[in-house]
Amino acid sequence: MSINVQPFGDQAILVEFGSSINEETNKEVRKFSAHLDASSPEWMIEYIPAFTTVTIIYDPLYISHQVGGETPLPYEWAQQRVEELLSKNAIDRNQTDRTIEIPVSYGGDLGPDLSFVAAHNKMSEEEVIKTHMAGDYLVYMIGFAPGFPYIGGMDEKIAAPRRDDPRLAIPAGSVGIAGAQTGVYPIETPGGWQLIGRTPLRLFQPEKAPPSLLQAGDHIKFTRISEDEYKSMKEDER
């Protein structure tokens, strides 16, 4: 695998592990992220993992103090440290795969766009639900909103375009489809995804550590519950 390291603004480095989104590339992203967690270099402010990249924000003042105003420049010094970290990244960091079961009440008031997704793909609503539950899903990254999972693995047979008129407020727990991706809204937020159901699980709880139920590398299995079961589980989650 060819890894590209390049400057990204005035105090960041972009480490690119590939140009296409796939599970193997994302595994390298997660492995390097675990390495950064374990080493926790003092010159690093934070890092941001994505589908195929890790962005490292560094502290140029700390680096300038370390090098005493001499060459190399802060970026060059940080780049050397990043390449050293990458050279030690060959060890598998014992990534543990988790499978998180997410119960969903499909259709009705909780999934108002299920009929659109079915009509768009010339399928019945039941076929859409069964296809959605049958997917082999992987959380590639967390972003957009706190705890929002970017999920891969949805069958393109149920793909659907975003809404022409995005909603101003989508309830937390809403399960949606946009293009060839499915996702779960962890908090109430505006959005344009087609909503096919809702889960009673709380995906983001800021009082917990970690606050996000889902993490990059998790596998997801969607299961079906009734609206009554949804209401009962929702009460238990409060």
UniProtKB/TrEMBL annotation:
SMART domains: AHS1. Signal peptide: none annotated. Residues 3-214 form the Carboxyltransferase domain. Keywords: ATP-binding, Hydrolase, Nucleotide-binding. One of its GO terms (molecular function) is hydrolase activity. Pfam families: CT_C_D (PF02682). It comes from the Bacteria. NCBIfam families: 5-oxoprolinase subunit PxpB. This is Kinase inhibitor. It comes from Halobacillus litoralis.
